[in-house]
Amino acid sequence: MKITKETNIAELLKTHPETASVFREYGMQCVGCIAVAFDTIEQGATSHGIDGETIETMIENLNVVVAEDAELEKNVVKLENKEITESEQGSSND
């Protein structure tokens, strides 16, 4: 998922809860706020007095957090698959 200024905040938080920390870093306490159901990142940030350049930086940070989480998840899946394969190989040697 590529995050842009048009991304809905609520949808982003639902699919990537790890992004809440980025919003907090910029003074946006989005979790639990009713406005996030309707606001895009740009709308929410602007209503908090955040300028355009800072919004772009925030979006870059959000994309980094999501990419890091995806990479971590991919590594966990690889590890789980490796453990399953090793377990199956051990069972066939019995």
Q: What is the name of the CATH architecture?
A: Orthogonal Bundle
Listing every helix as H and every strand as E from the N terminus to the C terminus, the arrangement reads: HHHH
The rounded Rg comes to: 19 Å
Q: Please indicate the percent range of residues in DSSP E strands (runs of 2 or more).
A: under 5%
- Could you name the ranges where pLDDT drops below 50 across 5 or more consecutive residues? none
> What would CATH call the class?
Mainly Alpha
Number of helices: 4
Count of discrete domains:
1
Give the CA-based shape. elongated
CATH superfamily: SP0561-like
Class derived from helix and strand content: mainly alpha
Largest sheet: none
For the secondary structure, the number of strands is: 0
State the helical fraction: 55-70%
Mean pLDDT: 86
Distance between the termini: 45 Å
- CATH fold descriptor: SP0561-like
Protein name: DUF1858 domain-containing protein
Domain DUF1858: 3-55
Organism: candidate division WWE3 bacterium
Please write out the topology:
Blueprint: H1 9-15, H2 20-25, H3 41-47, H4 52-92
Pfam family, one: DUF1858
Protein name: DUF1858 domain-containing protein
Domain DUF1858: 3-55
